[in-house]
Amino acid sequence: MEKKLRIGAIASGGGTNLQSIIDRCRDGSLDAEIALVVSNNPDAGALERARKAGIPCRCIDHRRFASREDFDREVVAALKEAGVELVVLAGFMRLISGVFLEEFPARIMNIHPALLPAFPGLHVQRKALDYGARFAGCTVHFVDGGVDTGPIIIQAVIPIHQDDTEESLKARILVQEHRIYPRAIQLFARNRLRIEGRRVFIDPPLPAGETALVNPPLANEP
Ligand code: GRF
């Protein structure tokens, strides 16, 4: 059997993305194992999910550290000690510093609940609605020094409904997040991702199809 990719997951919140990765590791569709879950928030649901799944987890409370760099050093040390090869940010609500990036170059992924490069940052489902966008979605990308700016690995697109609220849109995007994050990790685990500048190439390539999404839909009506 091939060696499994060792993942370190970092989460601040409920951890539904973490759960989707745990589930895919378990059912064998992901050639990876979660070596460690770290949270900066002692009350994170993600820690509870890790405990339930029997995955080693640690709370490293950022409030104990004088600077972002000091906090990052401690997290990096924990990840290294656990033999982590790929770091996945799963609802980690803090920016990471150069300290982190240097230790895991091109080995940190993030999931963002918008179609980047539109709507980086926070409260992005609300922003997409308020803007009047017709489509929303989610993006898995490699992390670089910016806020949600790194090379894009995979995206899922959904139409925004006329009666969508922030909550309904969040929920529908989350369903897609749970599909694409494990997929991005699996492509990495199989060594199929190659970064060239801003672009991520998949080797061998996967056919993307030609289907165009249109919203509101085209119809034979006046
Ligand atoms: C998700 O919407 C993710 O895209 C964003 O933070 C949220 C985390 O949700 N980065 P969960 O903790 O995985 O349920």
Give a written overview of the molecule.
This protein has 222 residues and is an alpha/beta fold. It folds into two domains: 1-105, Rossmann fold (3-Layer(aba) Sandwich); 110-206, Rossmann fold (3-Layer(aba) Sandwich), CATH 3.40.50.170. The protein has six helices and nine strands, in the order βαβαβαβαβαββαββ. The chain has helices at residues 16-26, 45-53, 68-81, 98-103, 124-131, 166-189, and strands at residues 5-11, 32-39, 57-59, 86-89, 108-112, 135-142, 152-159, 193-196, 199-202. A seven-stranded mixed beta sheet has the order 3-2-1-4-5-6-7, sandwiched between helices. A two-stranded antiparallel ribbon has the order 8-9. It binds 5-O-phosphono-beta-D-ribofuranosylamine (GRF). 5-O-phosphono-beta-D-ribofuranosylamine binds next to helix 1, strand 5 and helix 6.
